[in-house]
Amino acid sequence: MCGRFTIVFDAETLLNRFDIEDIPFDWREIYNVAPGQKIPAIIENKEERRIGQLKWGLVPFWSKDEKIGYKMINAKSETIQEKPAFRNLFTRKRCIIPADGFYEWKKVGKDKQPMRIMMKTGEPFAFAGLYDTWTSPEGEKLHSCTIITTKPNEVVADIHDRMPVILKKQDEQLWLDREKFDADLLQSLLVPYDHDQMRAYPVATIVGNPKNDQPECIQEIADPSL
């Protein structure tokens, strides 16, 4: 699964990298993004990209209440066209979630060592996601999302049995295009990212607590397994 990630780059980098005109909320760097938080997500409408904040943890429009969201932070790519919560969203409600790294916990003896996985270049990238809008009994709307996962590449396989789908930059436009739908083509994008372009390194155990959101979360530490 993907349960924590990082967004450590400034607003100008976001605008340039993801071809966005403006940000309608106060942008800030986040060192320890956790489920249940509002996260930035990008959609496309009439060939124009827009960014907004969605609650991480999908609440389908047909849900009785929003508690289901904590169980739906991820969607498995292998079953995305079968599960009732995801199959309709796959056709029309696809989004990308900007990030520059994610955390997974590696088993080291009896302990678990948090690892941060990122591009070797340090550049931002995009998770493939789905989104939906749920309306409460009181009429309040909740916009939420889920991050799609796939089998791990060689960098992640030593740490965890799943990894988030990271789209190639040239495939982001295809994923966002709501006017064109080719299920087989879109499904072909949901694969492990090229391991040669990624690296993983150990970080402090403070990332285990989502209240810790500071630069120390991403600082590399000595590998305890050595």
Automatic annotation (TrEMBL):
GO biological process, one term: protein-DNA covalent cross-linking repair
Alphabetized InterPro entries for the sequence: SRAP (IPR003738), SRAP-like (IPR036590)
Transmembrane segments: none
Claim: Cell inner membrane is one of the keywords in the record: no
Enzyme class: hydrolase
EC annotation from Swiss-Prot or TrEMBL: 3.4.-.-
Pfam families: SRAP
Cross-referenced SUPFAM superfamilies: BB1717-like
Gene3D superfamilies: SOS response associated peptidase-like (3.90.1680.10)
Keywords assigned by UniProt, alphabetized: Covalent protein-DNA linkage, DNA damage, DNA-binding, Hydrolase, Lyase, Protease
Family (UniProt): Belongs to the SOS response-associated peptidase family.
Protein name: Abasic site processing protein
Naturally occurring in which organism (per UniProt): Brevibacillus formosus
